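Private note to self, pasted from the team thread so I don't lose it. Backbone tokens:
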């Protein structure tokens, strides 16, 4: 754990978060929206914040805490319909494609993660 960025990030370990991710194409049109839930299992400068879902799958988001907001008590649902009661945090990210899709199959596409720093509205 020597790679933990700071005490604020370290405090996220073992916390549960509901994470909303919106994907946009190069023109700003919505491609997809996902709602995931997980428990923070790792936080590193190099790899970001890794959360583990209830099915043991892991996903990683950038290390910024700016889009992390304390979640109001309540019942929430992921995009798969999984019920989540009283998560610790609500987190939202916008992910923008930075290059056209006319790349040959298998060639890297570039994406930019943008923290959504406006507190999410619930209800």
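Design output:
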């Amino acid at each position: 754990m020597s790679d933990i960025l700071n005490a604020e990030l370290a405090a996220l370990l073992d916390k549960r978060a509901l994470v909303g991710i919106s994907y946009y194409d190069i023109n700003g049109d919505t491609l997809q929206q996902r709602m995931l839930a997980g428990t923070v299992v790792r936080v590193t400068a190099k790899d970001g914040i890794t959360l583990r879902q209830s099915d043991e799958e892991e996903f990683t988001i950038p290390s910024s805490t700016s889009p992390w907001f304390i979640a109001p008590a309540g019942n929430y649902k992921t995009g798969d319909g999984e019920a989540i009661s009283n998560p610790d945090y609500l987190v939202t990210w916008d992910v923008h494609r930075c290059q056209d899709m006319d790349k040959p199959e298998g060639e890297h596409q570039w994406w930019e993660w943008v923290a959504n720093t406006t507190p999410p509205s619930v209800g």
